[in-house]
Write a structure and sequence with these properties.
Helix content is 24%, strand content 32%. The protein has 3 helices and 7 strands. InterPro entries: DUF6318.
């Protein structure tokens, strides 16, 4: 019994096979950091001491809330908030602490579904109830590791606002629904 093998029959020298040329892989370039959002535009209706102005101020506050969370800059919230508003101060402190710890946030978009203003003192004092959805949010540390995630939530916010040549949030109550 003979063993069969692979030979060229001894007649011709073996033909070399072509080795594919190595191709250089492009070096990945890191994605540029997303452009920070621009500050929200102050609504023209905020120039009036009436229910429409109070509603516009409440909605603007919520736009500033999202802006502050995304940029780490609560200065515009501070301008709109009374030093007596403990919820406002807590939000500012949270934004500042996140920034000071080198963390970043994304998400937290707010969608207002309903606004109900009530005039308490003519041209001076109002309450506004906002029914809204706060979108999901994520906070990351300096290394980009997720340190907290927040699910979307339905909320009712109750603003106490005062007009004194401009709007100030004097009080803010937050209730999570559903």
């Amino acid at each position: 019994m003979a063993l069969a093998g692979c030979t060229n029959g001894g007649n011709a020298p073996p033909t070399p096979t072509a080795t594919p040329a190595a191709t250089a892989s492009p070096t990945p370039t890191p994605s540029p950091a997303p452009e920070p959002p621009s500050p929200p535009v102050r609504p023209e209706a905020m120039a009036t001491p009436n229910a429409d102005g109070a509603t516009a101020a409440s909605r603007y506050f919520m736009e500033l809330y999202t802006y502050s969370r995304l940029t780490g800059d609560p200065s515009l919230l501070v301008e709109l908030s009374s030093s007596e508003c403990s919820t406002c101060s807590a939000i500012v402190d949270q934004v500042s602490a996140t920034r000071d710890e080198g963390k970043t946030s994304e998400g937290y978009a707010v969608s207002v579904h309903e606004a109900t203003p009530t005039e308490l003192v003519s041209g001076e004092s109002f309450t506004v109830e906002l029914r809204l959805t706060e979108g999901a949010g994520t906070t990351r540390d300096r290394a980009g590791v997720v340190v907290s995630e927040t699910a979307a939530a339905e909320r009712i916010l109750r603003f106490g606002l005062r007009w004194n040549g401009g709007w100030t949030v004097e009080a803010l109550g937050v209730e999570t629904t559903g």
